Structures are given as C-alpha cells and as structure tokens.
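User: For a benchmark we're assembling, each entry needs the component sequences followed by a predicted structure for the full assembly. Here are entry 17's components. Please fill in the structure.
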Amino acid sequence: MAARNRPLSPHLQVYRPQITSVISIMHRITGVALAFGTILLAYWICAAAYGPEAFHRAEALVNSWFGMLILCGFTFALYFHLANGIRHLFWDIGKGFDIETTRKTGWMVAGFSIIATLATVVLASPWVGAS
Amino acid sequence: MKMESHLGRVRGLGSAKHGLTHWWAQRITALALIPLSLWFMASVISLNGSGYAGYAAWISEFGNLIMSVCFFVALFHHLQLGMQVVIEDYVHGETGKVTLLILVKFVAFVGGLSCIIAAFKVALAG
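Assistant: Structure for entry 17:
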C-alpha cells in the first residue's frame, strides 16, 4: 500500500454546524437511542408474558421519574427518526435534494418532532386521564 | 460493461456482496414502520393506565396481534440493519467489528422472537 502520511482533509470540527448536518447526525443518534430503547420495550412486552405481577413491576419502572425521562426521550427520538426517515425516503426517489429544500425540510423535521413530542406527553399524561 | 479491472475483480475489491439487499431491506422496513410505529404509539397512549387487564384484552384482539407481530418483525429487522451500518462506520478493528455485528444480530433476533412469542402467549391465554 501507499505511504500513510498523506495530507488529511479538514476534520469535522472546523465546520460551522448547519441545520442539514445537525439533523443528519441526530438521525444516527436517535436511531441508536431507539435501538437501546427497544430493549426496554421488549422487557415490557415480555414481562406481560410472565403474568400480571411482572407486568406491574415493569409498569412501576416506567412510571418512575427515570422511566418517564426515558419514555419522553424515546418518544422524541421516535418522532424525529420517523420524520427524518420520511425525508430520507423522498431523497431516495430523487425528490427534495436541493439545498433550499433540504434546509426547509430539516427545520420541518425539527419542528414536527418537538411539537409531536409535547402533544404526546400531554395526551399520555395522567392528568388528561386516559381511563 | 463492468466498471472494474480484472485485477480488482480477482482481489475481491468493489461491490459484489450484499450491499443492495441491505439498502433495499432498510428502505422497505422503514416504509412499513411509518404506519406501524404510529399505530403502536397511538395504541400505547390509548392503553395508558389500563394495566395488565387492559393490555391482555387489547392484544387478544386478532387485528392488534397481527399488527403487533408485523411491528416487531419490521422494528427488529430495521434496528439490526441500522446498527450494522453504524458499527461498520465507527468500529475499525476487524475483531471488534465482527464481534459487535454478530452480537447485534443475536440480540435483535432473540429480542424480536421474544416479543412475538410474548404477544402470542398473552393473546392466547387472555
């Protein structure tokens, strides 16, 4: 192979963060977070198979402040990854790939995921009272 | 016309593996997860506070069981494909990379299978 002391391209930190680059890395971070969050979901689903007592233990864990924090984070990550995933699918069919549109849809993803998370937290909160 | 040299071909360089299958499967599972994850979120919100009995009654409904199984299959498959890309991008040592890739495959398979069997068990018992 050729010698390894070739000049390197400028590294990531010399660039100013832009909406497109921030959303892009967030897609990865939320994806990995969702993968780990899914372990909690699997625990919840499997606890039900062990019977009501195990299910209540899982519910108690989710209803603790720590569980709620995880759940809110999971909800945000899901909406973000979902919205930006749709953005990616549009790119895959060759639509919305110009700079103007990617910036606009990037802000739309950010706005949607924040609003949808807040709406879900309000809807699911015990004070609004689903049964 | 092949866009590679004979030498490159013999050395096994360039794409001749499962890249396209992986790419395509990631998109298909993503597409499936759009309605499935929204449906699952809505279901979890509507079940909020109804406890074990509420969940058992819900999963016993045939449509909910089918949708749940579809959701688990798409979710765990998509999760494995995504984690594979991240690991391949950031883990450079061959041993560590392959170990993690196999680990993610095992965890995703066992996790997905566990969720499906757990859903069936409660649905059939309830």
